[in-house]
Amino acid sequence: MAGGSEMAGEEANDLKRTLGPWHLVTLGIGAIIGAGIFVSTGQAAAQFAGPAVVISFAIAGVGCFLAGLCYAEFSAMIPVAGSAYSYAYATLGQFFAWIIGWDLILEYLAAGSAVAVGWSGYFNALMTEFGVRLSPAYTTAPITIDAAHNLGFSGAIINLPAAILIAGITALLIVGIRASATFNAVMVVLKLIVVVLVIAFGLFYVRAENFTPFIPANTGTFGEFGWTGILRASGVIFFAYIGFDAVSVAAQETVNPQRNMPIGILGSLLICTVLYMLMSFVITGLAPYQTLNVPNPVSVAVGNAGPALGWLAPLVNIGATIGLGTVVLVLLLGQTRIFYAMSRDGMLPPMFSRVHPRFRTPYLGTLVTGTSAALLSALLPHDLLIELVSIGTLAAFVIVCIGVIVLRYTKPHAHRPFRTPFVPWVPLGGVAVCGAMMMGLPLSTWIRLVVWLFVGLVVYATYAARHARPPKWSIVNSPAE
After folding, report:
1. Who's near 391: CB < 8 A, 6+ residues apart?
2. Which residues of the chain have pLDDT under 50?
3. Is pTM, for the whole model, over 0.90?
4. Domains, the chain, ranges and CATH?
5. Residue 168: which residues within 8 A CB-CB, separation 6 or more?
6. Three-class DSSP category at 342
7. DSSP string covering 24-77, please?
8. CA–CA distance, 481 with 478 (Å, rounded to integer)
């Protein structure tokens, strides 16, 4: 057989291939449709962009689409668990692979925990509608962060609903990927119904005055409204687009990944970008953007329309509860597969790649991931967690785009079941758009990333560099036709 991606050796712990294109698309939608619509849209509009948050979603969507084309090429060539980490290992080498893998650990852990905290807020609102009032001491993070990024204490004890959600999803992931994906697919359909209802009925009650001014004047501070605010908002909401990245980490459990991975990545991304822009237009049209900096901005916007949409508010809370829950599922799935891939390559201890004899899932890595995420969600606020996510996501996308360009020059004849079009312009566009969004993020976010990467370098020098093995997949040239 002529060329292609060839495995360097058989894996002792193979994951079971059970996922088709429908599962992959719904996995992507499950990750993307959730925090971005139900939490981040209102906060980004209120703090950074105003009604022009619609433009922010368009910018983020363009960056994601460009990076998604690069992901699609890699996921078809290298259909293994690990996402950008595995792609970097096969193209840029061990050191860059470690950097991106360590970065992805932060991204997925913080993202899953942040979304769980958002889920807890909507869950509390839903319980209140049913007459059940939960104590703030057990539904709020004990640690807070103010506008100046100073840490404090709220007086609460623990965010128990968030921790319980992660514990339940961890158990589901251990039982099996197909059971998790099927559950996710059902939940995705239900929350999409709610999203479509809000868009379809909300459009009739949009008020033109809420769009004036469409781009609020900058306050004199970078990132606070104006065009810099639009750029900053695009960087903040970008974490909600990592669904297609989560699709790619399931490559080793996908049937016919060369065909199905591009379908899952690009299909979920296209559907969700359209829905994001429509939803952000509707909620900023239903209510003044200044009122949307709340844990449940969609239900607040719907409630602002008056009795005509009153029947929709409970459905929004139900949809948000379902939606955010499925996001946590896909993000925790992604984290466990990153651990699996890095352990398989010797970068992390062998326990993270140990597969359960019955369920064929990396159960020990899943337990570690679930425990860590539960602790973060129980103790830290949404704002602090979300700051740890966006820059890591963007950095991963930039490296993947660069990797496509490098591989086109170093392995020009390698078998590519899916080819990113217009190379190098599409990857360079992805680098430019994602890089611009990174520059729009505040200095404190960069500092946290640098600290995390420094810790990662210490771990690399003391463990990973000494135990790392050659990548399981190597890219080889095919004979020129």
Report:
1. 235, 438, 441, 445, 446, 449
2. 1-13, 478-481
3. no
4. 21-471 (1.20.1740.10)
5. none
6. helix
7. HHHHHHHHHTTHIIIIIHHHHIIIIIGGGHHHHHHHHHHHHHHHHHHHHHHHHH
8. 8
